[in-house]
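Review form for a predicted model. The reviewer records the input and the model, then writes brief findings.
Reviewer: anonymous (R2)
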Amino acid sequence: MSSDPRSITDGPRGWLTLAATFVFVFLFRLEQNVAYVFGLSSARELVGIDFLPAEVVVYTLAPFLHVTPDHLVGTLVWFVPFGYLLESRTSWEGYVGYVVFVGYLTTTFVPLFLLLVGVPVGQGIGASGITNALIAREATVRGVWVLQRRSFSWRQRGVLVLVSAVFLFKLFGLVTGEPPGTSVAGHAAGLLVGVVAGVGEQYLSAGSE
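Model under review:
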């Protein structure tokens, strides 16, 4: 089996993850400033405003908005390392396409579909669905590598253990109950899409060898 040129041993590039991090932080600061201008107490109040033009903007930018500093930090804690890992082995088009697709799927399309079929769900805001999809994809890809009996360095084994632990932590949190205000549907969709994407990534990689 020939090795992929963008394999586990390649160093991550990171500039796309850095750019996405900047976008998340910039938009949150913009939310805070706009809320202040309109006399609102917080970005949370801004994204929940009942005004059609504002609602259109919120839904358009939903995967990239955050309502509190804790919400933003909670996203970046997972997005930075797992985005970095995905970026290390994929093209920039594949990376951006995956992040954008999963973002809108988990904040817009899945909640909208559930509402249409009569399942009450809250508004999806933020990149939590994206981070769940990144985590699940990484855990799936590395799990497949284990099943393929690839050789790992000690550093790679350490990453495997950490990635697997984070995935199980996210899965456990979903099963036992998410905190109030969390988009459970978006988080679950992110994990599911990540597993499917991880399997698909390995299938395409094997087919190109």
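Findings: The chain has a mean pLDDT of 86.
Further findings: Residues 111 and 121 are 6 Å apart (CA to CA).
Recommendation: see findings above.
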